[in-house]
């Protein structure tokens, strides 16, 4: 006799909770839905259905990976961010909800040409392009594997014809000027890496930390951005919640003005906005 979907679900929830996963109920439902190949909201309707053997096998494989604290987005291969779903692999940073603040801020600025430095999945750039039909964008990454993921996401969102995805070390291969430059660079200091949640071990280390004080990327971006930002253009950078004063100072020293710090939904500093005033 095979188990029911409901039995499988409660056992999975228990395993996830025992592995220290906070939102065990929500994640169990997502994993069960993926094992069954249905939408998560169908799972509760199927509680008394028998769990097919093939689904049982997929379920135990996914459960083992998640209990080893591999990120859910890697197991499902997808992550919802802003208004779309993005393909995610171990070669890119898993898009975080805090980063949506950066997308909102970008859409509050007038732009026709946007540059995203260290695009990863492309979640920031592609969300901006999808929401702003006339705009064009360039996304850079130092990782070829990340660029392949971003290209796939650009196709998926139907914006590939308006976006150029380019291998570049910050500005090294970037040409021309933009109205908006955005980035969510690696900003975790080397010493902080060991204090963070276990899921981060599965993400590319170079997407998370500069192996230094956490500010290396901001120095590189501040040094190059002025030459690639048109007059009146805006620079929006995601920051760690304690980095507002330091990043503001780096940008001010590089000649930026109109500095503002925007908070995320938890009320923490999350984005620094700076302008290049007409001159
Ligand atoms: N731009 C991508 C994101 O915000 C990747 C950022 C990164 O790898 N540091 O998710």
TrEMBL record:
<dbReference type="InterPro" id="IPR004556">
    <property type="entry name" value="HemK-like"/>
</dbReference>
<dbReference type="GO" id="GO:0102559">
    <property type="term" value="F:peptide chain release factor N(5)-glutamine methyltransferase activity"/>
</dbReference>
<dbReference type="InterPro" id="IPR040758">
    <property type="entry name" value="PrmC_N"/>
</dbReference>
<feature type="binding site">
    <location>
        <position position="170"/>
    </location>
    <ligand>
        <name>S-adenosyl-L-methionine</name>
    </ligand>
</feature>
<comment type="similarity">
    <text>Belongs to the protein N5-glutamine methyltransferase family. PrmC subfamily.</text>
</comment>
<feature type="domain" description="Methyltransferase small">
    <location>
        <begin position="99"/>
        <end position="192"/>
    </location>
</feature>
<keyword id="KW-0808">Transferase</keyword>
<dbReference type="InterPro" id="IPR007848">
    <property type="entry name" value="Small_mtfrase_dom"/>
</dbReference>
<dbReference type="Pfam" id="PF05175">
    <property type="entry name" value="MTS"/>
</dbReference>
<dbReference type="InterPro" id="IPR019874">
    <property type="entry name" value="RF_methyltr_PrmC"/>
</dbReference>
<comment type="function">
    <text>Methylates the class 1 translation termination release factors RF1/PrfA and RF2/PrfB on the glutamine residue of the universally conserved GGQ motif.</text>
</comment>
<feature type="binding site">
    <location>
        <position position="184"/>
    </location>
    <ligand>
        <name>S-adenosyl-L-methionine</name>
    </ligand>
</feature>
<dbReference type="GO" id="GO:0032259">
    <property type="term" value="P:methylation"/>
</dbReference>
<dbReference type="InterPro" id="IPR029063">
    <property type="entry name" value="SAM-dependent_MTases_sf"/>
</dbReference>
<dbReference type="InterPro" id="IPR050320">
    <property type="entry name" value="N5-glutamine_MTase"/>
</dbReference>
<dbReference type="GO" id="GO:0003676">
    <property type="term" value="F:nucleic acid binding"/>
</dbReference>
<feature type="binding site">
    <location>
        <begin position="184"/>
        <end position="187"/>
    </location>
    <ligand>
        <name>substrate</name>
    </ligand>
</feature>
<feature type="binding site">
    <location>
        <position position="141"/>
    </location>
    <ligand>
        <name>S-adenosyl-L-methionine</name>
    </ligand>
</feature>
<feature type="domain" description="Release factor glutamine methyltransferase N-terminal">
    <location>
        <begin position="10"/>
        <end position="77"/>
    </location>
</feature>
<keyword id="KW-0489">Methyltransferase</keyword>
<feature type="binding site">
    <location>
        <begin position="118"/>
        <end position="122"/>
    </location>
    <ligand>
        <name>S-adenosyl-L-methionine</name>
    </ligand>
</feature>
<protein>
    <recommendedName>
        <fullName>Release factor glutamine methyltransferase</fullName>
        <ecNumber>2.1.1.297</ecNumber>
    </recommendedName>
</protein>
<dbReference type="InterPro" id="IPR002052">
    <property type="entry name" value="DNA_methylase_N6_adenine_CS"/>
</dbReference>
<keyword id="KW-0949">S-adenosyl-L-methionine</keyword>
<dbReference type="Pfam" id="PF17827">
    <property type="entry name" value="PrmC_N"/>
</dbReference>
């Amino acid at each position: 006799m095979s188990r029911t979907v409901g039995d499988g679900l409660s056992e999975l929830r228990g395993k996830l909770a025992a592995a220290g996963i906070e939102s065990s109920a929500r994640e169990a439902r997502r994993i069960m839905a993926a094992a069954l190949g249905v939408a998560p909201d169908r799972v509760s309707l199927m509680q008394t259905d028998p769990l097919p053997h093939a689904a049982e096998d997929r379920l135990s494989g996914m459960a083992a990976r998640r209990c080893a604290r591999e990120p859910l987005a890697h197991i499902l291969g997808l992550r919802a961010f802003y208004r779309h779903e993005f393909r995610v692999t171990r070669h890119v940073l898993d898009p975080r909800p805090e980063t949506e603040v950066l997308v909102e801020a970008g859409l509050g600025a007038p732009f026709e040409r946007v540059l995203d430095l260290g695009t990863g999945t492309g979640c920031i750039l592609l969300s901006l392009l999808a929401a702003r039909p006339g705009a064009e964008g360039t996304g850079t990454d130092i990782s070829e594997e990340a660029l392949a993921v971003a290209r796939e996401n650009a196709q998926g969102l139907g914006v590939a014809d308006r976006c150029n995805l380019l291998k570049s070390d910050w500005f090294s291969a970037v040409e021309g000027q933009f109205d908006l430059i955005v980035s969510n660079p690696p900003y975790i200091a080397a010493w902080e890496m060991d204090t963070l949640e276990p899921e981060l071990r599965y993400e590319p280390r170079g997407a998370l930390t500069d192996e230094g004080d956490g500010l290396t990327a901001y120095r590189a971006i501040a040094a190059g951005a002025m030459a690639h930002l048109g007059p009146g253009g805006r620079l929006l950078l995601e920051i760690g919640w304690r980095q507002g004063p330091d990043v503001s100072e780096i940008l001010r020293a590089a000649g930026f003005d109109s500095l503002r710090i925007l908070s995320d939904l938890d009320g923490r500093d999350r984005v620094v906005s700076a302008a290049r005033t007409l001159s």
